[in-house]
From TrEMBL:
Residues 268-372 form the Toprim domain. This is Toprim domain-containing protein. Coiled coil: none annotated. InterPro entries: TOPRIM_DnaG/twinkle (IPR034154), TOPRIM_dom (IPR006171), Twinkle-like (IPR027032). It comes from Zingiber officinale. One of its GO terms (molecular function) is single-stranded DNA binding.
Length: 396
């Protein structure tokens, strides 16, 4: 079997596989919608969060149901993290569709067997073959010429080419997305609901289980750290971890965005704080239109603002530009210490001073002021945070 025949066989197998997966997804979608699990963007191998159709959540749009379709399309699983619900389940694709899957595996195996025989017989450099295989456009052009020369049925080839083009475009987009952002499927995190010790940790900071559930705060399975998933449109983009008493780390090589980004979608006024716990404290006070920076505060203000490409420390602002542009008023509720004030200055320089206001936190006692939103919540002994503005600080 020559290289073009091998590639033609591989193309037809790829088209068959994509068609089977589409049928399985349609079947799963129909079954899931019948029990109330509805999603506008069904994807294989990507965990999603949505309101639980059973308990409806305690607040509107509580994203307390974690849902996952396996990358093979064979089944879907879900679990509600609501303490009063805990709904779990699993649905499999129909037997008809599942029978197709072994057939395509068998076809692929035959192709690879022929390919291995060819490799052994010719001893050619298979790295070169891989490059040719990846260059789908060149291979398909050569294939077209070959079929035209031999007088084979071009209608069949055109259908395969069109289907292959769509498949390859889809995979190219996914590969580009994975290379640039390396989005993580929720199932790959090995996360679980918060245990008692971490719930107590948040209770000591006056943060309720309801707020934790709505924000999808979890823990790693080793029970050594709290997990703060960073989501955009319900999909996890990255995750930040905190050990107790205080140690932080993040997933490597992931796109950096603001924590709580979905809460400021289309908001005309937003609040920016310095940490995830401050964002949760703001919600306890009634302010959901709040986000946190992912990396804390810089030690001091930089001399110059770098270009977007070189502004690595504040790349999260550029990544969330579409959300931030819609706000006419931005409240910078950073920490009261020197790094916190430096962060406020850096944010104002990039977001536009004309729409930024800086918080002046109230006094904790006769000599000290509260450091951040969570400390205000603790000292005030009530779930209420007010903004104290100094005329000198308006605008920043």
């Amino acid at each position: 079997m020559d290289i073009n025949s091998c590639l033609a066989a591989a193309v037809e197998v790829a088209v068959l596989q994509d068609d089977v997966l589409t049928k399985q997804l349609q079947d799963l979608q129909s079954k899931l919608e019948a029990i109330g699990i509805v999603c506008n963007d069904w994807k294989f191998g990507v965990g999603l969060s949505m309101p639980c159709p059973k308990c409806k959540g305690r607040q509107p749009m509580d994203m307390n149901l974690f849902f996952f379709i396996h990358e093979t399309g064979k089944f879907a699983t879900w679990k509600c993290l609501g303490s009063d619900c805990g709904w779990v389940g699993k649905i499999e694709a129909t037997g008809e569709f599942m029978e197709d899957y072994p057939l395509q595996k068998q076809a692929t195996g035959k192709f690879m067997e022929q390919y291995a025989i060819r490799k052994q017989a010719t001893g050619e450099d298979m790295g070169h073959y891989s490059k040719i295989k990846q260059a789908t456009g060149e291979v398909m052009e050569h294939y077209a010429k070959r079929k035209q020369a031999t007088g084979e049925d071009m209608e069949h080839y055109s259908k395969i080419k069109q289907a292959t083009g769509e498949v390859m475009e889809h995979y190219a987009k996914q590969a580009s997305k994975s290379e640039d952002c390396k989005i993580i499927a929720e199932s790959q995190f090995n996360l679980e609901p918060l245990s008692g010790k971490f719930i107590e940790f948040f209770e000591e900071r006056r943060i309720s289980e309801e707020t934790l559930r709505r924000n999808g705060v979890l823990q790693n399975c080793s029970k050594t750290a709290i997990a703060f998933p960073y989501r955009r449109d319900g999909e996890i983009i990255s995750c930040k971890y905190r050990s107790v008493p205080k140690g932080f780390w993040q997933e490597k090589d992931k796109e950096r965005i603001l924590y709580g980004l979905d809460d400021i979608k289309n908001a005309s006024e937003i609040i920016i704080v310095e940490g995830e716990i401050d964002k949760l404290s703001m919600e306890e006070a009634g302010y959901r239109n709040c986000v946190s920076v992912p990396d804390g505060a810089p030690p001091s203000v930089s001399e110059n603002i770098p270009t977007e490409e070189k502004d690595t420390k504040f790349q999260f602002l550029w990544n969330c530009k579409a959300y931030l542009e819609k706000a006419s008023r931005i409240i910078l509720a950073t920490d009261a210490d020197a790094p916190g004030q430096a962060l406020a200055e850096e944010l104002a320089r990039r977001l536009g001073r004309e729409r930024c206001l800086r918080v002046k936190w109230p006094k904790k006692d006769a000599t000290e002021v509260c450091k951040d939103a969570n400390e205000v919540d603790l000292v005030s002994c009530s779930h209420y945070i007010d903004f104290y503005f100094d005329g000198k600080d308006i605008p920043v």
